[in-house]
Amino acid sequence: MNDLDPFKIFLELQLGLPRNGPGSRASTEAAFAMLPPLPEKPEIADLGCGQGASTFELLRLTGGRVTAVDLFEPFLDKLNARAEKEGVSEARLLPVRGDMEALSFDNEAFDLIWSEGAIYLLGFAHGLESWRRFVKPGGFVAVSECTWLTATPSPEARAFWDAAYPAMGTVASNCEALTRAGYELLGTHVLPEEDWWRDYYTPMRKRIAEMRATYGEAAEEVLANEETEIALFENNPGQYSYVFYVMRKRD
Length: 251
Ligand code: SAH
Description:
Oligomer: single chain
Bound molecules: S-adenosyl-L-homocysteine
CATH topology: Rossmann fold
CATH architecture: 3-Layer(aba) Sandwich
CATH superfamily: Vaccinia Virus protein VP39
Radius of gyration: 18 Å
Shape: globular
Structural class: alpha/beta
Number of helices: 9
């Protein structure tokens, strides 16, 4: 077997995890707590929602409706299955298959745009610029973004991220970028290391072992890449993490 599509392997790996990027209920709550009170039934978009890790938290934290957008159907299938299991009404959750770079919502449709571990796919500044028109005047955006926490990373960490995400910023550069994109910062929250391990890297390591047993060499490249990323995080504590940026749209 040597004809496995690397993307299919990646999807299968991701779909076996409780979430598809670092994060936790506590961190979603900490970011949400930086917002002033929202309308009673806010309109919320969760962009790059995956299987809905943050979607279901937002439904719990607000009385609003969440429009959950993802490009890939298998993630939305998992989100729909969970919604059914938890008895979430159709009035509160609207799953949408769509490209977050080419959204077709009305301008000023949302009180709040939320996005965990996904804006990097568009680039931090570009994502914020292109989503701005969908936010109501004075409305809010909260995103988590992988961010350098040190100006002097190890050569190993620098080399990895220069290849994987060369535009990765620091807290200061991202704060400048969001100001330039037309927002005012309300607060930041650095995800603790535990948010990388508990529901992401620890189950991923287990899943890598299972998939290696199933697919052998045919999946090795994808699985080895993920292992490299995990080892990098383990060996370079405190050098980078996801950071929540919570902001208000300026006039
Ligand atoms: N927010 C989720 C998933 C983060 S992973 C969580 O924290 O668990 C990034 C997600 O973005 C994946 O679910 C992927 O399918 C989705 N995605 C990738 N490109 C996209 C695009 N162009 N438009 C919408 N979603 C996209």
